[in-house]
Amino acid sequence: MFSKVAIVGLGLIGSSIARGLKARGLSATVTGYDGSADVRTRARDLGFCDAIAETPQQAVEDAELVLVAVPVGAMADAVTSLASHLADGAVVTDVGGVKTAVIEKILAELPGHVAFVPGHPIAGTEHSGPEAGFAELFEGRWCILTPCERTTETSLAKVTAMWSGLGSHVETMTPEHHDIVLAITSHVPHLIAYNIVGTAADLEEVTQSEVIKFSAGGFRDFTRIAASDPVMWRDVFLNNKEAVLEMLGRFTEDLAALQRMIRWDDGKALEDLFTRTRTIRRGIIDAGQDTADADFGRPHGHED
Amino acid sequence: MFSKVAIVGLGLIGSSIARGLKARGLSATVTGYDGSADVRTRARDLGFCDAIAETPQQAVEDAELVLVAVPVGAMADAVTSLASHLADGAVVTDVGGVKTAVIEKILAELPGHVAFVPGHPIAGTEHSGPEAGFAELFEGRWCILTPCERTTETSLAKVTAMWSGLGSHVETMTPEHHDIVLAITSHVPHLIAYNIVGTAADLEEVTQSEVIKFSAGGFRDFTRIAASDPVMWRDVFLNNKEAVLEMLGRFTEDLAALQRMIRWDDGKALEDLFTRTRTIRRGIIDAGQDTADADFGRPHGHED
Which residue of B has its CA nearest to A259? Predict the structure, then answer.
């Protein structure tokens, strides 16, 4: 499919793409680069790229497709560092969890002879770094592309083909709509998970050891999400401020209503809400976006 | 260990206890009863009890240990219905997720010749009903016992032995402390999961289909918790009102602070919080209360 793909940023997402491209034979050469010398060494040892470049310029030379997989806040610098070495006709794409702000930053840095296809794979785990990646991460998941003024028909087709090749379903929408959809399906859920874990950590009446021991009551699910990469998530919130604050406002409003139902013993309203939320779970399972197994299929029973 | 255990309420928890007692040979006879005729029929077909009684009175006859596993709001009626048929020296225990309110209700109904050991296994899944139970549910999990004025040394030892026999770690504490600990480790997490799923369902800018397709960004974890038994959870919130409202107040306060960090671009404070919450996850994994596998060990890759 491609002669050379360059991947800048070799964390969970970048390294999973590299592994997927090689596993499925989608690119003759995959060259990687990461801003951290330590990550470059580890990536070299792991061997999921054909070559690890020592500079971003070297990585993108002659690449047909350049994939920038760094935290949203580092995107502009990453693009600046490689812009002057991009081949004629190269296509640049990214995987940032926020689109409007990122597009603005990248367009300001990008030379005129390259196309840009903003993208965002809706996949990931709570683990970070090049060791955490795996080739199947994107299989059966959705990837959203949000074409902008620098997206050509050919470049959109190439990036679509890459994601389909990795096993993803591809959908296009405007950057603005992406940012609202993700605010409710991803950003606010992360925010409230980080928040409840913080609240629990600060309690004086309940010890940390109690929180840990009795977490199987529900809390432990939130700790998984609240173990996601801190820098990546800091950047998402700062760059999707408007949509996150809007969705958070709705969440808080609804929570106040729920709090009132409890205070005034409105059992019927509680039961109605709790019954309604069950059907959304069913939709997610039917769409193949989660397992129907109890507890996500977590192991039960003694490990010892 | 026991000659006869009676289990009243054959949902996820009651049926798992029955299966565990039989699998580990902890009771010569296990007799079950459920208020729903349909559940009694299904339980008979599933065969996890030695006998399914047609009345609660019949179920508890000659039972050494009587386990009441019904939603918190149905506890008083369940105990009233069987109280007059309890054997001399029988021990009654429960599995309710709230302790202070439940103890008060049960003590009002209980005859003088039986002991009562309030209990709460910190285990469960989002699935409900007798088909959802399994013998290993309590292995490696904690069970909290909250002795009250009707708990004798012998009865406490018997109930402790039963839970240890099922593979659980047992801890005792006051009912009041239990209700605070569970408010933060279980009740408020469920409340905010129900709430965010409700918020997402009500949006007009984002369709239900988009919420479902892009749920892998984090939202789908919340839908699992928000698919838990509606009646059980309604009763928990109404019966642990004070502790839930207190913990919810702290959560909301902290969320307002987090919202302010985003509005004022306080990247350092965000990153600090997100880094701090990672360590709690580590503690839960080290304590054997969750898997270290990415995404809870969920299957990745194509199902087709």
Answer: B245
Measure the CA dihedral A168/A171/A174/A178, to 10°: -50
pLDDT interval class at A302 (50, 70, 90): low
- A273/B194 CB distance under 8 A: yes
The answer to whether residues B135 and B230 belong to one domain is no
Shared-domain flag, residues B42 and B110: yes
Q: Does A222 touch chain B (CB under 8 A)?
A: yes
Query: Per the domain annotation, does B303 fall within a domain?
Result: no
The low-confidence residues of chain B, meaning pLDDT below 50, are 303-304
Domain that holds residue B101: 2-173
Which of B125, B137, B196, B206 has the most A C-beta neighbours within 10 Å, making it the best mutation to test the interface with A? Answer: B196
pTM of the predicted model as reported, rounded to 2 decimal places: 0.94
Residue numbers of B between 154 and 183 with CB closer than 8 Å to A: 167, 169, 171, 177, 180-182
Torsion of CA A147, A151, A154, A159, to 10 degrees: -50
Interface size between A and B, measured as CB pairs under 8 A: 374
Contact residues for B282 (Cβ-Cβ < 8 A; gap 6+)? A227
> Which residues of A fall within a CB distance of 8 Å from B178?
none
Q: Would A303 be classed as within a structural domain?
A: no
For residue range A219-267, list pLDDT tens digits in order: 999 999 999 999 999 999 999 999 999 999 999 999 999 999 999 999 9
Looking at the fold, whether A105 and A240 belong to one and the same domain comes out as no
B48, B24 Cβ separation under 8 angstroms: no
Dist. CA A176–CA A159, nearest whole Å: 20
CATH classification at residue A11: 3.40.50.720
Quick check: A238 contacting B, CB < 8 Å? yes
